[in-house]
Give the backbone structure.
Amino acid sequence: MNVFVNLEHVIHVPWVVISASFAAILILFAGMRVRSAIADGGGVLPDEGFTLRNALEVVVEQLSDLAEMTIGDEYRRYFPIVGTIFLFVLISNVMSLFPGLLGSTSDVNTTTAWAIISFVVYNYVGITTHGWKYIYQFMGPSIINLKVGDGHWHIRLLAPLFLPLELVLHLARIITLSVRLLANMFADHLVVVTWLGLVPAVVPAIFLGLGLLVSFLQAAVFALLTMIYIGQALEEAH
């Protein structure tokens, strides 16, 4: 039974939209709770014990460090979109581990939508950073370098070969990002549901733990690949 599918029949809104909206609401709620906790605490001192704020701060700090290593000095500028992708994918993945719920990342429309967002973001970064010279990243290495007056001209003789190939490979990133997330989460949830049906206790708990780990790793991988693509877009073509 899927609660969101039942709601779909009642309000005539696709279940994946309802599920995605629910995940977004959870993210907003968590953000407001953390903001409120910081305001009530009177500063940046962590809460005592294990709290939602402390858990989110640890995750954000680790993801921030990874973004700095992957993107570089400008990571703070692009970290909000990377963090949003990570949290949404993570929450949607974990939702599917709860009986009666199904995360929107179990639907190809959601995974493809986030893949397209990632694709648009890193190409936007490349275009805004390098302007029309961003196309050089798709034209292969500079084989001949000429200096004419104060200018330098990079001759890319292999551009006719590299350009169509690179464009196809970059477009394929949408498919690989989408299918990787969808396939891994489908397989993980299928295993968990199967064991819940065969052995109601003990063994399913192990697979639920593994499912939680897989959910976290897949969210991290999606965010990491987005950071890698942004980092590559920021680099100068050689």
Summary: The mean pLDDT is 82.
